[in-house]
Design a protein that fits this description.
With 68 residues, the protein is mostly helical. Helix content is 26%, strand content 0%.
Length: 68
């Protein structure tokens, strides 16, 4: 993650007061599994294919792109 942090120059953004705090995002993908890095950050989950209510990911890609 440090490589991406440096590539995007995140420290410069933080110095300018841009932190992303209070910003919500939506990710449309294969799903998301309850990964420890995401435990407190998932506020909504909608399964548009199988109508499941519990978090799951059919192939892991959705969880991968959601982990910060």
């Amino acid at each position: 993650m440090n490589r991406v942090r440096n590539l995007l120059n995140i420290d410069r953004l933080h110095e300018q007061g841009i932190t992303g705090k209070g910003v919500g995002i939506a990710i449309l993908d294969t799903g998301v599994y309850t990964h420890t890095d995401l435990a407190d950050n998932i506020v909504c989950f909608q399964d548009m294919i199988n109508d499941r209510v519990a978090l799951y990911d059919d192939n892991g890609h959705g969880t991968h792109v959601n982990v910060r």
